[in-house]
User: Fold Phage transcriptional regulator, ArpU family from Blautia obeum.
Amino acid sequence: MTERDYAIRSFKEVTLNAARHTEERMNLYYGKIKELMNNYQDLILENQMVLDELEQECQEKINENMAYALQYMDSYDYRMNLGKLKKEVNNIILIYGLCDMVNRAMTLVKYFTPNFGTEYYDVLYGCFCRHRKMTDMEIMLELGMSRASFYRKKKAALRHLGYYFGKS
Assistant:
């Protein structure tokens, strides 16, 4: 399913429920999603490091790729720390689920936020989803926004993201 298909499928529910949410509730979502997104980029980068370490460990132990190691892990139990490996794989699956939810919510922000959806998406992507951290000033320059406009849109984007995150 493409991002656009998911957004279209969610249109009816999102638009009907959006009108029911009060300012108070949107502020509650804003606080929670801001806390999550402030740690999101670090979580993704750390997750990539763990994946690389697990891949390297599997390469060292049996000189094959990770899929082969997982397929035959019972045979190589005496040479691998299976408890650690299973725990890390479980954590990776949970982080993947979180990433999927954030991506779905960002898709909804892009397509269904009135007036500024694409701009909100660009602000969120610039602040939280890049492979390297950028300062707010770098993002402002890239997007061609004034300081006041950038922070106003960032707050509004996080509020909408929090709302849509709860729906995805």
In short: The CA atoms of residues 50 and 131 lie 16 Å apart. The chain has one domain: 3-167. The chain has a mean pLDDT of 78. Residues 23-62 form the longest helix (40 residues).
